[in-house]
Amino acid sequence: MADTHQESAGADFDLTQFYQIFFEEAAENLDQMEQMLLNLDLEAANDEELNGIFRCAHSIKGGAATFGFADVAELTHQMESLLDRLRRHELRLIAPMVDVLLESADASRSLLARHQAGGQGEAISTHDLVRSISELASGQAPAMAPQAVVPAPQPAFAPAPVAAPAVVPEVGADGMRALEIHIGPLEQLAQADAIKELFRDIPGLGQIEDLPGEVADMRRFAVRTASSNDDLLDLFAFHVAKDKVSILAAGACPAPAPAAPVAQSPALDAARPYGFFAGAPGVPVDEVAVAALAAAAAPAQRTAAARAAPEAKGASQASMESSTIRVAVNKVDQLINLVGELVITQAMLAQNSRGLDAGVHQQLLAGLADLDRNTRDLQESVMSIRMIPMSIVFNRFPRMLRDLAAKLGKKVDFITHGEATELDKSLVEKITDPLTHLVRNSLDHGIELPEDRLAVGKPEHGSLTLSASHQGGSIVIEVRDDGKGMSREKILKKARERGLDVSDTMPDSEVWQLIFAPGFSTADVVTDVSGRGVGMDVVKRNITSLGGSVEIDSAEGYGMRVSVRLPLTLAIMDGMSVGVGDEVYILPLSSVVESFQVNEGDVNTVTQGSQLVKVREEYMPVMSLERIFQVPRPGGAGSSGNNIMVVVEADGSRVAVLVDELLGQHQVVVKNLETNYRKVPNVSGATILGDGTVALILDTGALVRRARH
Amino acid sequence: MLSILAVDDSPSMRKMVSFTLTSAGYHVVEAVDGQDALEKAETHPVSLVLADQNMPRLDGIGLTRRLRAHPRYKGTPILILTTESSDQMKQAGRAAGATGWLVKPFDPVRLIEVIQKVIR
């Protein structure tokens, strides 16, 4: 955007390379701002909080303006103005302010997302938001009717007046204004061409034409636009200094005057982009003035020292920032992959060295033992890089619940425990949607309306608790509410209607599991929040596909608890290796129920060669890995060594997998087969064994589904 | 090579300023806020300080005051980057001993021009 600039400076000032870091920073600032806004106590907002929120808006504004995202800069500028008045105690904080600021944060987010996508798609309009904020900032109640005819008042802390004469241009019937824009004096007149390009590049900005009549080092344009002078100046500021731009109503403007006096006019000083204090230290004028000023500066030190106390609070945050680095996820993934390879190599070495004489190769074996330990430590440390705290997920709920509770007319206190519990990043991403669903369900179906709660002697505010904790090698996330719980009768009735096989004597735990059946919903009223019957089955399926499980506990009238248990990472898995012919397959240990030696009499062949096995009075389908994967047998098809059944469970059903032998249980490093090869039916991934051969990891869910058909 | 201390709490701003200055041939020391800048200024002697005004812990004007009290930085040019060049801000900047001010958003070329006017 600054070709002419590049020439004059002789350096390449391409700002696009900083876009990404700005987007990330802005997203962080917006999240932080939202968090702080939600935590604000309307009655007693403290200065520290207001300052923090202000600083977030301020940072985004500064960046957005610098990088040329005028729409974001404008919106955040308005937010900043309002926040500035609040932190100066010129305004009292009221709920609509928090609402409009939250809305503006959302709008900024979507504007930024659009810029990040390269400006694709329609930009959302922030016009109403900007007006609401400026009305609030000027101390008015927000206008209820959006079509209020009163022109929006200027925010109290509007930007410094710009170098435009106070001529109010005529607005045409189409909302377009005819303007004359004078730019100069310029050393290189070509700089002004960038302005013309702006009109070409930004759809809807308006039209621009050169005006005849050259004035030395000045350019004049005729412009038709619907944008305000401020907007235009903000846009132009990236190409020419504001003090070199004059915006005049077409026709009403005087003959083009030499612009030199304009730039020097003291009234316009405020809009100058920089300046020096006469006689200040560092200004290359006279040394005497420097000494005088330096002395004058000394008493000011006390003020600074007195302020040290409140400043200390920010210290921990700042030191946090400087002690972390941002790394691209693919770099971390690559590192994990390499460590995975190293683990495999180490396992191979360990296996190959097993037969060595400990007396002869003492040093080598000691070295290998060290390697074993170090590899394990290294693997653990590397895996921990991917671990991120659950707070990343938890933090999105307060806002969602606040909006949802308002919509449903419910009152709820949101409590979280164990936000610091860490979980693999890929799991965090995948667990967010199911958790969101569970939390919504709790609020929508669990927690009652305030009057209903009071009627049954409960406090008016419901409570919704989200907690995370480590239990063994898993993480357990609980969503708990003190609402009305689930009705056993209702679920059983609904299940019968849907033709599910149920009985009145079923234990509670099995009854609750019924709600995971596809299309099952007991909601009396289908709201637009939940209760459409899609959901719980999807939740369950998503969690199962992550190697996790869901449990429900409920007491009618007292509430409900949903516990989600997940493995800590997807990159390493506990597996059971089984042998079929010369092949080795891995079954996820989490889905293995039991294994047993099978007697020929227990297997019954039914139609089309499919087999059933009777296990403790229960028949289950037999899946022969040999047949599914067409494992070749050296001794011919008849020499089957299959005599072990491994019962696996997935999606609530069980199948017996027929194998030759059980080889053992161990941790395996999961490799994605789809990215390295292609999708293979019945297989969820692959791993490399200690002897270097590849073993397929079986998708038990697919095996179970296969058995059903 | 002349060294410049660039102080800004926004990482993207800091990177951009730093990039601009480095491209123009200066050595850049970065600080994340006024307090950090004081520590950096102590350990890395610099020829010019370019500080954001609004920062946590210690703002640009506060930083200026403290630097002026330091024998080494009595006469070093200190430029304050601000979003608004209100008279109020300028008064405070001047009283603290700042050399000059620069309005954000700034243009990289202008930044270099201004710096070249005062750096020694």
UniProtKB/TrEMBL annotation, chain B:
Modified residues (4-aspartylphosphate): D52
Full protein name: Response regulator
InterPro entries in alphabetical order: Bact_response_regulator (IPR050595), CheY-like_superfamily (IPR011006), Sig_transdc_resp-reg_receiver (IPR001789)
Alphabetical list of Pfam families matching this protein: Response_reg (PF00072)
Alphabetical list of SUPFAM superfamilies matching this protein: CheY-like
Domain Response regulatory: residue ranges: 3-119
Organism: Diaphorobacter limosus
Coiled coil: none
Ranges annotated as spanning the membrane: none
Keyword tags: Phosphoprotein
Keyword Oxidoreductase: no
